[in-house]
Write a structure and sequence with these properties.
It holds the Pfam family Dus. It comes from Anhinga rufa (African darter). Its cofactor is FMN. FMN binds at residues 17-19, 85, 153, 181, 212-214, 240-241. It contains twelve helices and twelve strands. It is of the alpha/beta class. It has a single domain (12-257), classed as TIM Barrel, CATH 3.20.20. The strands form two sheets. An eight-stranded parallel barrel has the order 1-2-7-8-9-10-11-12, surrounded by six helices. A three-stranded antiparallel β-sheet has the order 4-5-6. Strand 4 (52-55) and strand 5 form a beta hairpin. The chain starts with 12 loop residues before the first strand and ends in a 7-residue tail after the last helix.
Length: 308
């Protein structure tokens, strides 16, 4: 199908999909500070298929589970910038979810990089990396079945050659871009990011490659985003932990003080009725080493949005 979306994946600074972090307040804050595209947290296909689409008085579009819990909330402000990331190991289920959310998002992404057990035990996330046929089936089905651009996010394989071969196969499915976390599935943030492998991928394919995994080694301020992009020869950069710690990393003019960022975040959390446990989690990630301060301990003990 023809992609009828203005979404472009070249020269972009992107908020990475992060479980419990990539909810609506964080995505809107990242856009305010200069992010070009924002990915939501990974949402599992089976859970999404149980949801009903509801227009909320908050001027949001909510996908609500049978137990009344909001699984995914979005709004007009991000409609042309948000990519819906899905956990799936089944082409038809993935397509059904994509069709459910297609009119409310700018693109659809399949998570093929998460190494956590909750993802891999259901043959999703990084487990897909060992099943190229399934990868091809899911991506081809989505590209043919929806009008919005399709992307996927992978980790690198044990060898550069195998990784490049897999990415070339993925490129043939017709996806719009591929995000590459430059670590193997058994590696963690403290392990160095393999810029050379991302670079080899960038040079091997013609679709945009989005480099991810640079927070620990590279990205401490805005200028570092370009340094990471050059080191990987990637089209764009996707930021996870550096943005979780301070989403104003996307500001060309420099970081805002954390107190200001947290206040901006809380305003969105209140405005969009974010669950207080999620709000607290995101604020605790920002505070990090300050969690042992008096303010940090009070935040950790908060049991409502009002207390936060």
């Amino acid at each position: 199908m023809t992609v009828n979306s203005p979404l472009c994946f070249r020269g972009k600074k992107i908020l990475a999909p992060m479980v419990r972090v990539g909810t609506l307040p964080m995505r809107l804050l990242a856009l305010d500070y200069g992010a070009d595209i924002v990915y939501c947290e990974e949402l599992i296909d089976i859970k999404m298929l149980q949801c009903k689409r509801v227009i909320n008085v908050l001027e949001t579009v909510d996908f609500v589970a049978p137990n009344e819990r909001v699984v995914f909330r979005t709004c007009e402000r991000e409609r042309h910038r948000v990519v819906f990331q899905m956990g799936s190991a089944d082409a038809e289920r993935a397509l059904a979810v994509a069709k459910l959310v297609e009119s409310d998002v700018a693109g659809i992404d399949i998570n093929m990089g998460c190494p956590k057990e909750y993802s891999t035990k259901a043959s999703m996330g990084a487990a897909l990396l060992s099943d190229p046929d399934k990868i091809e089936s899911i991506l081809t089905t989505l590209v043919k079945g929806i009008c919005k651009p399709v992307t996927c996010k992978i980790r690198i394989l044990p060898s550069v050659e195998d990784t490049v071969n897999l990415v070339k196969r993925i490129e043939k499915t017709g996806i719009a871009a591929i995000a590459v976390h430059g670590r193997k599935k058994e590696e963690r943030p403290q392990h160095p990011v393999h810029c050379d492998v991302i670079k080899a991928i960038s040079e091997a394919v013609s679709i945009p490659v989005i480099a991810n995994g640079g927070s620990h080694d590279f990205i401490k301020e805005y200028a570092d985003i370009e340094t990471f992009q050059k080191a990987t020869a990637a089209s764009s950069v996707m930021i996870a932990r550096a943005a979780m710690w301070n989403p104003s990393i996307f500001r060309k003019e420099g970081l805002f003080p954390l107190k200001e960022v947290m206040q901006d975040y809380i305003k969105y959390a209140v405005r969009y009725d974010n669950h207080y446990t999620n709000t607290k989690y995101c604020l605790c990630q920002m505070l990090r080493e300050q969690l042992e301060t008096t303010q940090g301990k009070k935040l950790h003990a908060a049991q409502s949005t009002q207390e936060i």
